[in-house]
Amino acid sequence: MYFENTGIENTVIDLNLLDDLMKKNGLIREGQWDYERVTYDKKYEIKEGTFYLRVFGFTKDGDVGAHDANITLLKPVVGKHYYPHGVEYGENEVFPNHLVKSCEQVLTALKKDLSAFEIQA
């Protein structure tokens, strides 16, 4: 399930600052990156299953591995984890209201933090 109109998508921000702001809001990059892309996750383990709030991003001209990149964020998404297959985001998935509300609160707080540091393209 994608979150529409969060104000996060298309935000451009320095990778190092982004790592800090994401961590402040419970979203962790860990090893989920390559030289052009990043993924930040917040894991929810609730009675209905394991879910991940994800924010993806990419750089047009930087190097994530060298910590020298401005990241453009994409539309946030929440998905359900199925062992051993991975995370599903499909329209047939059921996302509990309390989970969606929590994700929206995280994204609202994140947008507020990002807006203070956004790079104007």
Give your account of this protein's structure.
This protein is an alpha+beta fold and 121 residues long. The radius of gyration is 14 Å and the shape is globular. The chain starts with 11 loop residues before the first strand and ends in a 6-residue tail after the last helix. Helices cover 24% and strands 30% of the residues. The model has no long low-confidence stretch (mean pLDDT 92).
Q: What distinguishing features does this structure have?
A:
single chain, 121 residues, alpha+beta, six-stranded antiparallel sheet
**Residues in helix, %:** 10-25%
Cα-atom radius of gyration: 14 Å
Most strands sheet: 6 strands, antiparallel
Strand content: 25-35%
> Which runs of at least 5 residues are low in confidence (pLDDT < 50)?
none
Write the H/E string, N to C.
EHEEEEEH
Q: Give the number of DSSP strands.
A: 6
* Spatial shape: globular
Overall structural class, as computed from helix and strand content, comes to alpha+beta
Task: Count every helix, treating DSSP H or I runs of 4 or more residues as helices.
Answer: 2
The chain-level mean pLDDT equals 92
